[in-house]
Automatic annotation (TrEMBL):
Domain of life (superkingdom): Eukaryota
InterPro entries (UniProt xref): UBC (IPR000608), UBQ-conjugating_enzyme/RWD (IPR016135)
Pfam families: UQ_con
Lineage: Eukaryota, Sar, Stramenopiles, Ochrophyta, Bacillariophyta
Domain spans labelled UBC core: 1-116
Protein name: UBC-like protein
Length: 116
């Protein structure tokens, strides 16, 4: 978390995917914004690094995000949310905050993420 705002948790992760996966060589940075009544309500989750999968800086619709308070459980940890987001990169992009890119574009985003 930021010392200036303990509800803002920055994270980074290496891309998801099996051998030869499009995101494998990328490093992606984002932000989890905890609500004032966390852990009783879900956070907003964003990925800031261009990835070809999520719109940078936009809230992402996940079952562990503020888009689905009915599915939220206080048992979610910060690590668990980041891990779920990482695995979610491999699913079809149809949620709010998603985008589609070609394989070539996604590979280029992964390459550029190392300098982001």
């Amino acid at each position: 978390p930021l010392t200036s705002n303990l509800r803002h948790w920055h994270f980074s992760f290496r891309g998801a995917g099996g051998k030869g996966g499009m995101y494998n060589n990328g490093i992606y940075h984002g932000l989890i914004k905890l609500s004032k009544d966390y852990p009783m309500s879900p956070p907003d989750i964003q990925v800031w690094t261009p990835s070809g999968r999520f719109k940078p800086g936009r809230d992402i619709c996940l079952s562990a995000s503020a888009y689905h308070p009915e599915a939220w459980t206080p048992r979610w940890s910060i690590f668990g949310m980041v891990h779920a987001l990482r695995l979610h990169m491999l699913s079809a992009p149809n949620e709010i905050g998603a985008m589609t890119s070609t394989t070539a574009e996604t590979l280029e985003f992964a390459r550029l993420s190392l300098t982001w």
